[in-house]
What we know:
Radius of gyration: 20 Å
Largest sheet: 3 strands, antiparallel
Shape: globular
Amino acid sequence: xxxxxxxxxxxxxxxxxxxxxxxxxxxxxxxxxxxxxxxxxxxxxxxxxxxxxxxxxxxxxxxxxxxxxxxxxxxxxxxxxxxxxxxxxxxxxxxxxxxxxxxxxxxxxxxxxxxxxxxxxxxxxxxxxxxxxxxxxxxxxxxxxxxxxxxxxxxxxxxxxxxxxxxxxxxxxxxxxxxxxxxxxxxxxxxxxxxxxxxxxxxxxxxxxxxxxxxxxxxxxxxxxxxxxxxxxxxxxxxxxxxxxxxxxxxxxxxxxxxxxxxxxxxxxxxxxxxxxxxxxxxxxxxxxxxxxxxx
Length: 296
């Protein structure tokens, strides 16, 4: 009986301690700005937005095997509002094919009325916040920016998220027998080309791209693509996008939103509009000291 109680307390600690740590971080005072003066408010790490990726598209390697994977991971992360560990796994954790994005997690679909005659795809994502390991997936669609008639060359537009994912998927699929598509990760570590991609890989990529875009790497963390994507969706769709952002980003929502359903057309249109978001600057870029060094 005592062992059973110990297991209960252990499970409670696994839930309470992370929540307590998160609450503690929220209550910490923000650091002073980079000039050593008083802080003007809580600082936040920077996001990588469509304007940043557009700015560096001609500077980064998008042709080699690893360059193809990096660009596909960046575009997918930004468009689907992925957390750093949702590209593969959280650093230090073993891969579980039921939770990670595998080759079989991505399904390509033919044009339809809702996709405005463009090809589209669906990505199966399991939230890293699924702490009870329910493995409840969310299916997120992405539409191609152009029709095949208007732009028959896949990859001609580097900002087309569909094309970036398609090219990355094709490169990875060429390395893996089809019967293993549901067992191997879509994105792998550069170190050995086999191990699953981790949060550290997302952070490394975000900082490389951020530095090319003129952002201090210390202000960039593994959530940079998620932050940038959410900002672009709000910028493209306005304040009414809040519910769509919560659905696409797998954030906890109010009870009333349990009754709301995701609309295919809205998600498909948003997947394209995000790449065309304006170059309106965010507060972290405009105000020195607004951003803080990324912890995660």
